[in-house]
């Protein structure tokens, strides 16, 4: 039984992606096991912990702003400990202590699994510590996790790092080479989630399709999914971040045969123009993307397709951009995230000529978002009058009069939701909902027959 020492309280800020969130959940559980209590208000925390993101400048600025915000609490109470973890430290390591003298302890990702030990050691030290080395951290099921997501939903991080070398991306530099967890280790964690009542398991990685490439034998994503399907009862399994050309026929066949793998695929295309894709060092062209979309719609006619597009990449001509808009019009994808290219010094793309100015980048971003909003609104109409399974998340943040949930076609955090105007259900229930209204990103409906799946 862990005794919470009132003096040992921690306030954690978790920045960045879902993969970072999993790391934060591990650190919180390790600190709880070490007797820390988690507090919402940093004023009451003895330990101020920030898990940072750092792969593009806006993320770096956000991390530094958060560090400076929390250091104000330390100025008022110098006994507090300010600890910075993660990608920012992995990227800038040795520069940070001079830049951010308020911070007591900096550790890169290798410190995540021993954060409690590092902090315990730091308490007895009055000099700043920095732990950063070649990224080799890979979580496993022996590490505890304190889920920060609702009880019915969890992320399963199946790999660390990435072996792709997209010219605009720092992830391989920050998180290191691809490292896959073993299937048996992932099954231990998936079964634990099943026992804890998880209804939606989101598989995440930098590139899910690369799973097992670094492991011997025939370990791959399809084999992992078959084991999760066989050894758990989790009703919804969702796949986030797949690479286009390695989204295999086997995977699509399995998804077509197994409705527990929800008909939803998040596959970042980044662009559509052969010329731009080549400069991005993405290993496919537009024809490959068209074949992929055709294959997906052949095996999974009602699959929701999400992608990510990067506009304003060096050398992207007006024609290249018009080609992107034209493809959006023709492919009619369900969800599209559009991002503006960020010029990062350590990236190969930084050396490319023909940079696009900020104003033009913004204009292209707005045009792509507007084009997709019209398509999303039109696509949403296909659900009107239909009965869809909806995972209830709880009372809507908008108004207590509505419940909120998501269909199989809506991922958490990044897609719209379903507002439920009539019917009762509890968080975690999966219920049949008749869709009565559609909007650009959200749906509205009523629970029918009160039959709870
Ligand atoms: S696949 Fe993703 S994480 Fe890997 S290098 Fe490319 S953009 Fe970065």
Description:
By secondary structure, the protein is α/β, with parallel strands linked by helices. It folds into three domains: 9-131, Rossmann fold (3-Layer(aba) Sandwich); 153-381, Alpha-Beta Horseshoe (pyruvate-formate lyase- activating enzyme); 384-447, Beta Barrel (OB fold (Dihydrolipoamide Acetyltransferase, E2P)). It is built from 13 helices and 19 strands. It has helices at 18-33, 57-76, 87-92, 96-99, 115-123, 171-175, 183-195, 221-231, 249-257, 274-279, 286-299, 318-331, 358-380, and strands at 9-14, 37-38, 47-52, 81-86, 105-107, 129-131, 153-157, 159-160, 179-180, 200-204, 236-240, 261-266, 304-311, 335-340, 387-395, 403-407, 418-422, 430-438, 443-447. It has a six-stranded parallel β-sheet, sandwiched between helices. Strands 7-10-11-12-13-14 form a six-stranded parallel β-sheet. Strands 15-16-17-19-18 form a five-stranded mixed β-barrel. Strand 13, helix 12 (318-331) and strand 14 form a beta-alpha-beta unit. Helix 12 runs parallel beside helix 13 (358-380). It is globular. The model has no long low-confidence stretch (mean pLDDT 96). Bound molecules: iron/sulfur cluster (SF4).
